[in-house]
């Protein structure tokens, strides 16, 4: 048994004669992990779920489930269940019958149905709710019933299409933790769709960042946050300072009219690049000792830190998160280490990007 449960090979999707929604997309999903498809509205996230579930067909390319091509397998024969954004519960059926629905279609014996519904309800922390009517439940409870209805069929994969978006912030945080915990307890694959980057970072083993029908980058939350492949990902995942610069030589970049050490290598001498520095990696120092010098243009207290913006002498705006305060009009210096400077090449493919980053750790292992 391989670890890959779902594979997309060069999948393209176009609805009628509209523009292409997914453009030659390839990826692999491993068994037992929590995946998130993250991207702005309309980038094709739901379309990927619909292709996996069998609710729509690929225009070209192949989709595999457990190493078997499933392009022509109908939705009801696939071992996946979907939890929809609006939960899609049957309002005229009680909790028990909503959850039992799929089992009844399979003509399962009553005693078995009862046992399975009970087990599913206890999994989602709603024991004893069998007879409750759907309209007498809160949003969070309905959400749990929708999840119970998906897990009762014991699918190998659960698809979740923005399932938390209708909940208020507090409940949303709570359900994020519950869903993550549920996935671990069940040990099955979850594929979760969201356009909320914080949610993706908090919940996932692996994130696919999508834009305009393409996967821009895939990796663990830490990989994607720390080493974004391009401006789109850097901007979409968290707040960033992104400026244009030049890679002078290995481990040396120039931006804002000055040269700085970095940890990147393997580019052409004097190659134009962009750099990202996260706001929390900038440290406030005195103006004179600053590696960058800025004049503060705004300051907000955010509870755990101050959010400070300022302009350098080239007109670049810098965002700083610091526990130190600075006032509008102050001239301050900023300090950062070589690891804080993330260099991004223009139009680098994910394969080349991964190869480049791997070569850094090989270099470390060689003692270079
Ligand atoms: N059945 C359909 N017929 C025609 N176009 C469609 C259909 N479903 C989706 N689209 C189009 O495909 C594109 C991608 O839609 P999709 O729902 O996959 O995006 P998404 O990333 O899930 O967006 P959102 O976050 O807004 O749900 C959009 O431009 C959408 O209008």
UniProtKB/TrEMBL annotation:
The complex is composed of two ATP-binding proteins (PotA), two transmembrane proteins (PotB and PotC) and a solute-binding protein (PotD). Residues 6-237 form the ABC transporter domain. Belongs to the ABC transporter superfamily. Spermidine/putrescine importer (TC 3.A.1.11.1) family. GO terms for molecular function: ABC-type putrescine transporter activity; ATP binding; ATP hydrolysis activity. Keywords: ATP-binding, Cell membrane, Membrane, Nucleotide-binding, Translocase, Transport. One of its GO terms (cellular component) is ATP-binding cassette (ABC) transporter complex. It comes from Oceanobacillus arenosus. SUPFAM superfamilies: MOP-like, P-loop containing nucleoside triphosphate hydrolases. The keyword Translocase applies. It comes from the Bacteria. It catalyses: ATP + H2O + polyamine-[polyamine-binding protein]Side 1 = ADP + phosphate + polyamineSide 2 + [polyamine-binding protein]Side 1. Part of the ABC transporter complex PotABCD involved in spermidine/putrescine import. Responsible for energy coupling to the transport system. PANTHER family: SPERMIDINE/PUTRESCINE IMPORT ATP-BINDING PROTEIN POTA, SPERMIDINE_PUTRESCINE IMPORT ATP-BINDING PROTEIN POTA. This is Spermidine/putrescine import ATP-binding protein PotA. Its EC number is 7.6.2.11. InterPro entries: AAA+_ATPase, ABC_SmlMolc_Importer, ABC_transporter-like_ATP-bd, ABC_transporter-like_CS, Mo/tungstate-bd_C_term_dom, P-loop_NTPase, PotA-like, PotA_ATP-bd.
